[in-house]
């Protein structure tokens, strides 16, 4: 399929479906026409086309009802690629359509109080009981759990083998009895994430994603996509993203400028630009069919830049206030919204969420640069015997 | 516009890299900086003129920028950039940047017959401009004036002058060819590309044509970013190899996070330097050049400094080549504008004005 063919499809679709009609009906029809994510297979919202053609579709449909990428972020960026890669045909058909239209929101039940960077050491147990699994444990940093219908869950199904081998991946029914979601207030004042308590939660076996004991491999797919999703938020426009917010104020309020800020801003401008350029180069490599290892670094650069720019923004404005400390549950994750104080505080999370910058440096140095791993004392020890 | 390398560029790279691996390994460069003048002229003994002959004549790098009608290959800046990456990787002591890039760029608009000789590598030229000059201050270090068709004055910090057969001197918007200039090489920070003071005392000069020196220096600066990328790459690769081999505390030192995290960060800097270098030659705009220079000059220096530190004591020795790269990196940080000069230029280019 090429660009003219795709455009033809879009035109035909618009001929049959009125964008001014019911929003949800329009989105469902768009999914059924294969114009949701064109690189997905036919029948699952796609056309089995090249991923690059999505831009064409998005452009052609820019003035029609849109999905809400913020609150749907985890579903679109993490759950969907994992379901596509590991789900049964039935699971793909059940979950992908309402996930894409936004009728069902997803969250990610990975981290635990005792398992962060060392995710594989997690302790939430899933015990088989006939055709069901009984899940007990606690998850944390669960963004959007409060409006989620489903969660992607990694749980321990075999404590007698080393940590990476005893995990299984599930889709968790967030409406099931025993699922309790409590907001966790963040340094910004609001709660976009939660802690989730799972007590005797019964999940039918057909909510298992991938083989029993294969959860670590399934989770890798999710995590890889998460980093691409967060790093991919890096601006594609020169002078955009977090830099854009700073530049607007800089240009509009010359009285705020100092020589020191000017030097630092220019240095950050250059860093943002070279980061943008390597993102552009990465996309070119993807189109050419030669994805490079550069993607591993995008989130690292993105976090550093966001933090430096948002910090400079607060300092530049000399504003000692803060827009609003009210404890509320966020509708969505937004890095660039609200005031400069919020942006500064929220950006602190960029180097923690989705793999800390330290873990990302480990990944780059071991997988890209081929440096030896640090010695691991827990590699061959059954999980139940690990010190904790 | 693409930021990727073409197949032709990769073939050119392979040819240059193969030749340099064979004829110009770091040990050979180290030997050259030790050697005495060989009596074959005034060129510093560091220059490998046999290697230059092969590069210029057989691989044909000297004529890359020169159009076919003047005897060159009519290639683009992208191909020149790939050659510079490889020459940077090898800190190769050949006058490619100074003759085939800087002098050639100055000569190109004139269409002068000298282009044909440069293209074949029969003659080598140098632009009598301080290497510390920039597109924003092209006259830095120069005090040459024209008096009755003769040139007088001096230019400090000229790179490649001692290996040049011809000096091209820009004066007041015109380019002059001089064959009899006084070239005095002083001890230079960069051992593999020493600079000289060039002095003219009523030297006979031939006017070659008009010369937009700022433009020449801008294009040269954009290409220099690729040489800096090559320098940084060698430093990263060599350091990676070292920390995988070197054992302390019964482990390769590259397994310690204190070491590997620094290298992960350095890799990310180099990844972005590649994108910046490609962008500078792909569109050649003043913004792209300033971005590439502001970033790559600093990355090359940082890479060489990290290489030295992570090699430990051996990195401080004369016998290990890392110092050649540090000296090249630090010198090219100054060459054709410092990172600060380029950032300052960006202030007006991209509308980030300073305090009023």
UniProtKB/TrEMBL annotation, chain A:
One of its GO terms (cellular component) is plasma membrane. The keyword Lipid metabolism does not apply. Pfam families: Acyl-CoA_dh_1, Acyl-CoA_dh_M, Acyl-CoA_dh_N. GO terms for molecular function: flavin adenine dinucleotide binding; oxidoreductase activity, acting on the CH-CH group of donors. Residues 213-369 form the Acyl-CoA dehydrogenase/oxidase C-terminal domain. Keywords: FAD, Flavoprotein, Oxidoreductase. Residues 8-103 form the Acyl-CoA dehydrogenase/oxidase N-terminal domain. Residues 107-191 form the Acyl-CoA oxidase/dehydrogenase middle domain. The keyword Translocase does not apply. Its cofactor is FAD. PANTHER family: ACYL-COA DEHYDROGENASE (PTHR43292), ACYL-COA DEHYDROGENASE FADE34 (PTHR43292:SF4). Belongs to the acyl-CoA dehydrogenase family. This is Acyl-CoA dehydrogenase. It comes from Nonomuraea jiangxiensis. The lineage of its organism: Bacteria, Bacillati, Actinomycetota, Actinomycetes, Streptosporangiales.
TrEMBL record, chain B:
Residues 7-102 form the Acyl-CoA dehydrogenase/oxidase N-terminal domain. The keyword Calcium does not apply. Its cofactor is FAD. Keywords: FAD, Flavoprotein, Oxidoreductase. GO terms for molecular function: acyl-CoA dehydrogenase activity; flavin adenine dinucleotide binding. Pfam families: Acyl-CoA_dh_1, Acyl-CoA_dh_N. The keyword Oxidoreductase applies. Residues 221-347 form the Acyl-CoA dehydrogenase/oxidase C-terminal domain. Gene3D superfamilies: Acyl-CoA dehydrogenase/oxidase, N-terminal domain, Butyryl-CoA Dehydrogenase, subunit A, domain 3. It comes from the Bacteria. Belongs to the acyl-CoA dehydrogenase family. This is Acyl-CoA dehydrogenase.
């Amino acid at each position: 399929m090429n660009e003219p063919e795709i455009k033809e499809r879009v035109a035909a679709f618009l001929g049959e479906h009125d964008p001014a009609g019911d929003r949800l009906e329009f989105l469902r029809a768009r999914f059924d026409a294969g114009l949701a994510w064109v690189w997905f297979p036919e029948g699952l919202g796609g056309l089995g086309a090249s991923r690059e053609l999505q831009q064409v579709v998005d452009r052609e449909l820019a003035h029609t009802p849109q999905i809400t990428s913020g609150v749907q972020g985890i579903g679109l960026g993490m759950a969907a690629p994992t379901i596509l890669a590991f789900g049964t045909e039935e699971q793909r058909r059940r979950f992908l359509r309402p996930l894409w239209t936004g009728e069902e929101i997803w969250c990610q039940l990975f981290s635990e109080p005792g398992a962060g960077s060392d995710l594989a050491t997690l302790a939430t147990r899933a015990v088989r009981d006939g055709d069901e699994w009984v899940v007990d444990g606690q998850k944390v940093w669960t963004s959007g759990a409060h409006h989620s219908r489903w969660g992607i869950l990694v749980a321990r199904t075999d404590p007698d083998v080393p940590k990476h081998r005893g995990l299984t991946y599930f889709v968790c029914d967030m409406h099931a009895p025993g699922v309790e979601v409590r907001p966790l207030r963040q340094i910004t004042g609001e709660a976009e994430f939660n802690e989730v308590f799972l007590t005797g939660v019964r999940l039918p076996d057909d909510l298992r994603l991938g083989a029993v004991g294969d959860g670590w491999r399934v989770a890798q797919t999710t995590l890889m996509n998460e980093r691409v999703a967060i790093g991919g938020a890096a601006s594609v426009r020169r002078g955009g993203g977090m830099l854009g917010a700073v530049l607007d104020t800089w240009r509009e309020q010359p009285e705020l400028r100092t020589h020191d800020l000017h030097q630092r801003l220019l240095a950050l401008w250059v860093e943002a630009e070279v980061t943008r350029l390597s993102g552009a180069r990465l996309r070119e490599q993807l189109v050419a069919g030669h994805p490079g290892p550069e993607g591993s670094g995008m989130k690292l650069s993105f976090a550093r830049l966001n933090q430096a720019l948002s910090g400079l923004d607060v300092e530049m404005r000399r504003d000692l206030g803060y827009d609003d400390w009210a404890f509320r549950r966020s509708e969505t994750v937004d890095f660039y919204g609200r005031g400069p104080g919020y942006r500064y505080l929220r950006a602190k999370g960029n180097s923690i969420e989705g793999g800390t910058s330290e873990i990302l440096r480990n990944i780059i140095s071991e997988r890209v640069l081929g440096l030896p791993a640090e010695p691991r004392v827990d590699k061959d020890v059954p999980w139940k015997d690990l010190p904790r | 516009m693409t930021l990727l390398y073409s197949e032709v560029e990769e073939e050119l790279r392979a040819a240059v890299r193969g030749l340099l691996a064979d004829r110009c390994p770091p040990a050979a460069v180290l030997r050259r900086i030790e050697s005495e003048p060989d009596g074959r002229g005034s060129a510093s003994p560091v220059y490998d003129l046999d290697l230059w002959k092969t590069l210029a004549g057989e691989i044909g790098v000297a004529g890359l920028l020169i159009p076919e009608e003047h005897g060159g290959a009519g290639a683009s800046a992208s191909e020149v950039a790939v050659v510079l990456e490889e020459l940077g990787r090898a800190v190769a002591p050949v006058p490619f940047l100074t003759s085939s890039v800087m002098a050639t760029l100055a000569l190109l608009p004139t269409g002068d017959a000298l282009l044909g000789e440069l293209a074949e590598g029969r003659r080598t030229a140098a632009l009598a401009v301080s290497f510390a000059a920039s597109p924003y201050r092209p006259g830095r270090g120069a005090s040459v004036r024209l008096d009755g068709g003769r040139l007088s004055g001096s230019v400090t910090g000229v790179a490649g002058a001692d290996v040049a057969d011809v000096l091209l001197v820009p004066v007041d918007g015109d380019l002059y060819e001089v064959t009899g200039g006084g070239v005095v090489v002083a001890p230079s920070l960069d051992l593999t590309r020493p600079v000289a003071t060039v002095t003219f005392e009523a030297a006979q000069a031939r006017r070659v044509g008009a010369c937009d020196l700022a433009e020449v220096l801008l294009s040269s600066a954009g290409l220099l970013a690729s040489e800096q990328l090559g320098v940084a790459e060698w430093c990263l690769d060599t350091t990676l190899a070292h920390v995988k081999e070197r054992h302390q505390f019964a482990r390769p030192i590259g397994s310690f996070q204190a070491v590997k995290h620094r290298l992960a960060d350095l890799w990310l800097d180099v990844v972005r330097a590649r994108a910046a270098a490609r962008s500078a030659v792909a569109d050649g705009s003043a913004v792209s050049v300033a971005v590439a220079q502001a970033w790559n000059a600093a990355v090359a220096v940082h890479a060489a400094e990290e290489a030295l530190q992570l090699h430990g004591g051996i990195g401080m020795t004369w016998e290990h080549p890392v110092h050649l790269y540090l000296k090249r990196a630090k010198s090219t940080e100054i060459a054709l504008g410092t990172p600060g000069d380029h950032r300052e230029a960006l202030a007006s280019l991209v509308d980030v004005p300073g305090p009023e």
